[in-house]
Amino acid sequence: MKNVKIGIIQMRVVEDKKENIRRAGDYIKEVTKNGADIAVLPEMFNCPYDTENFPKYAEKEGGETYTSLSKLADENNIYLVAGSVPEEDMGRVYNTSFVFDRSGNKIGKHRKMHLFDIDVEGGQYFKESDTLSPGEELNVFDTEFGKFGLAICYDFRFPEVGRIFAQKGAKAIIVPAAFNMTTGPAHWEIMFRSRALDNQVYTIGVAPARDEDSNYISYANSMVVSPWGNIIERMDEKEGYRIVDINFDCIQKVRQELPLLKHRRTDIYSLDLIVK
Amino acid sequence: MKNVKIGIIQMRVVEDKKENIRRAGDYIKEVTKNGADIAVLPEMFNCPYDTENFPKYAEKEGGETYTSLSKLADENNIYLVAGSVPEEDMGRVYNTSFVFDRSGNKIGKHRKMHLFDIDVEGGQYFKESDTLSPGEELNVFDTEFGKFGLAICYDFRFPEVGRIFAQKGAKAIIVPAAFNMTTGPAHWEIMFRSRALDNQVYTIGVAPARDEDSNYISYANSMVVSPWGNIIERMDEKEGYRIVDINFDCIQKVRQELPLLKHRRTDIYSLDLIVK
User: Fold this and answer.
1) Set of chain B residues whose Cβ sits within 8 Å of the Cβ of A267
2) Which residue of A115, A164, A257 is the best one to mutate when testing the B interface, meaning the one whose CB has the most B CBs within 10 A?
3) CA-CA distance, B229 to B11, in Å (whole number)?
4) pLDDT tens across A93-137, in order?
5) Average of per-residue pLDDT across B20-47
6) In a 3-state reduction of DSSP, which class is residue A23?
7) Catalytic status, residue A153
8) Roughly what angle, to the nearest 10 degrees, separates helices A159-167 and A189-199?
9) What is the model's pTM?
10) Boundaries of every domain in chain B
11) CATH number for the A4-257 domain, one of 3.40.50.1110, 3.90.550.10, 3.60.110.10, 3.40.47.10?
12) Residue to test with chain A: of B258, B262, B273, B276, most A Cβ within 10 A
């Protein structure tokens, strides 16, 4: 099977929403030119990460950001995991990731389902639940290359999420995210490496570039990890993009050598989505 | 709450079973003298790790090794997680860990439930299932300090295992283990750190010392990790022991600052033991 080229876009997020969309567009063109099959934007790429901003920047599905991104996917003939944006629906605001195929059709949508509320002594305080509502679904999306899991940042803290994606046949898990300067150095790498390793999938974390002047300082360090748990690509804190080759044949090899998924004792324990 | 002192015993395993028991006894006395509340031995501490050896070294529960270890716990007035031994029962052989309280009473027993079968190209080949049968239960044991999870080596590869222990109220997970020179450098540290971090518990991995002349070369690197994912203690490859202080108050603090367990979406997914 041929390699899949992932364009990870660690863009800086500014106050001006239109400017963020314009710059996302520039990067999408750039990674397309460099051969990317799938472009991935960071969490809240059109809105500085701050609970007060989420309702102000929020748009309905089909709004300005959505339409622009769908068009960009189509124009560039590229799959686009459009990071995440504040989405308004029925008076509620969600942290939502939309996915478009090469023709700009929506093929995936995920609303962050674990809201990030943290209060570390001498470290980070942040409460997403002050203004956001949680999503209620966990889904994979399908492409010509295979299935991908899609989670947003704090969702990926929960081992259940990675495992459910693997059980649903995901070969890679894409995570628009924004760890901070407390949790980033402590947990970012372990999270992406352990989820990759435990589920024998690729993991792809894409964060905004670090902006020391913002209220919430992103750790950045966008990262791609192999199904064996090795870091294939790790950016630093600066703005930029990378094209990273992944190959799903590698997954089959790793799963043959060390059959972790096969060896699960599903006769003893079960992890399932609850049917409502 | 006072600290709990864990005596981790990274002993070398030799051919002579009696000699292994005698040396385990010496180490248990030594860690007791140095204030340990709980002594932990490595996986297969009385039997060189080799599928052919397991049936030869196997004893019934209550056999020579069991009786000796129970007596050592009593004599030293110490909790003893007696690593693991090959256990024979109804014609089958298990990789079993027994736990004794300060009076030598059995308070825990775990049979390795995920058997380690691996075949890495240019790396490690090993098939436990050639001679071993798997256990069917996952339990915590209780002490004056609180509850502990108990798994053996490959069991801990499965995120379900760590999570179930946390759900059952374990504050620390003890894992007699023996990673090899392929999986050790690649995965040992990530496994102990991610399970600790994800479940906000202490993790304690105790391995045999490295013996370059053995068939299966142990990575060693016995390790204790905090509920924040920090390595508190990491041994090298040599024989020896360490006394490591852990404090369960730390768990409450971490879980208050970053409430991962509380934030699980148990209305969306569930991980449960299957009732038979």
Assistant:
1) 274
2) A257
3) 25
4) 999 999 999 999 999 999 999 999 888 788 778 899 999 999 999
5) 98
6) helix
7) yes
8) 30
9) 0.97
10) 4-257
11) 3.60.110.10
12) B258
